[in-house]
Amino acid sequence: MIDDSEILRRYFIAIATDVYEANGTFAALDVDQEVASIRGWLTDQALGARRFDAEEYAALAHRPSLDQIKHSILKQRRFTDGDAVVVYVTGHGITATDNGHFIVLHDTDPLDLADALRTADLIRWLAAHQGLTQAMIIIDVCQAGQLADNLPAVLTRDLPEGWFVILSAHAGVDAKLGAFSGAVAEFVEHLRHSTDAVARADEYLEPYRFIKPVVNYLRDHDLQKPLILTQPYQPSVCLPNPGYEPGGLEQVVTDPARRDLAILKQDMTTHWAVRAPVLAGVGPVFTGRTVVMQELIDAATGPPGTFVVSGRAGSGKSSVLARLVTCSDPGFRADHADVLAIATPVPPEGAVDIAVLATGKTSEQIAQQIGRVLGVQGPRPEATTAAKGWVDNIRAVIAGRDRPLTLVVDALDEASDPSAVLSTVLERLNPRGHPSLRLLLGVRSSGGEQTDEPARELASVTIGLLGARQIRIDADDWWDPGDLRAYVGQVLAQPGSPYGPAQIPSVAAAVESEAGRSYLVAGLTARTLAESTEALAAGDPRLDVVLAQGSAQLVANDLRTSLHDARDRRRASILLRACALANGRGVPVRIWPLLASAIAPNSSYGDSDVAWLLGHRLSGYLVRDIEDGLTVYRPFHDELRRVLAEGAPLDSDGTAGVMDQAEAQRRIALTLLPLATWGAG
Question: What range does the domain containing 429 cover?
């Protein structure tokens, strides 16, 4: 996964020459406009923290000498893995008699290229910064493709995976002035003004999403064809999306150590309040759950030990853990101090040091995430596995701390191999009888007073292996029905609701009594009532019908209310189910249409369908996340994900046939197999 929080500095370096002493051979070029096109994209103030700095190397954009370029690239600073660098080269390029490619400089003698820049040397100088893993190099001069023949094969092979090297014209082909930069400017302008929700979804672009439209533009205008020397296979921090629109489906701003479990921005408002209660009228913050929150605060700040935090689907396990993590973050507390003063109990600042969402992650990924926060550079080389090597070094750091570390890991049951995470990482970090951490583990359970078999087994194994204490948040000791009634009352009081203050208490009590200690069911029910045209009083038989519905029926009712066209209801139902069937942290927006088409025979879906759903209020059923640098979406709650994946008939009265889950997963696997084969090559 690309975590841009590790990128501390971003530099845009333009190397450009407009006029030449040998002007009889090398004509003057208006390169300023070319530089301005690339710089205007990368240094745009609207990019915020993703913006590149063009000032430190600004002198290289105005007739630099060879010595000046060499000193600036090699000596001015040592680039590290905390840097991202974009180098754009424009001017004249030539191929010498030895077939070496050169960039012509202001004082270059056409008969003696000693003062010209050998293009391969520029790549070597940049590659000498061995820590530089994020770079984009654009050689936009005539015959630039000759560079591909000049670089040693071993150098090209060993360029970091995060490097993107573009040569704007093939060997022997002259680059047209302003062609490549103009194509980039056209692409950037299109993204800035795009209304396509898919195009706006990602902070950073995948290389193909950048180069494909640029190449198409050059082809359509009969201009040159670029050559790609090397490119990353994931989004690049050197390709900030100028059209990115954060929206509310991502976490609030916290320190990166706690970002995994931070509260969603959408949960910080009263709009679509279905995931956790908010304090209406006084500010955006979670309230209620006083007993269980105090228990979690005591666990996070007390002596070392392990605590298993569990509860049935919808009981708010992840919400209370998110509240604990977020409200302990110094930055969040500074931004929301007035509200936190009202909502109690609040954990002390820094009560949680590290938060990890285990969904879809391996033992090594979890260990690496913890290690990176603690400043561990890598696994111990002599360890038998990378995961064990990370844990060895993490333990060494923990042993040197002057206070216990507090680690929160949610969705342990959704890790790629929960048992391996337990034995390889968690048991070694916090062994039974000799704990060194305050370790809080979120594990899902379901079904009344009992857990289902897999969840019960994992919870039991965890408790036995780590000597953990269980905090079951929906058990009588930690459950207050008044919290759920208050939450329902807040949803019923939303603007536009037909319910008045006098009706809300009795209806909220009726919803709470039928919700089975599930915030999910209570929230969906309350939202259905709040968006109806008529207030149904407690005791009304029509209200009893609504209260008897499960989550699948409630979602189906919402689709019927929101979408009057049966074709749109089917489209939304298929897209939501495809999203729920995706493994890991969610479905990438670019393959979402493929999954939807796979489970809907005789139908075909594209980016426009995904954009339609993301632009509709039904997108509130989804949460946006990042996996392997890609924006992904999944249903906001595990129970909702299960209901959608199982294929509940959401788009009709239930008479239409629905593909069973096993067949749907088989079709998805067949659809994705060619992509996996291509990626492996």
Answer: 256-472
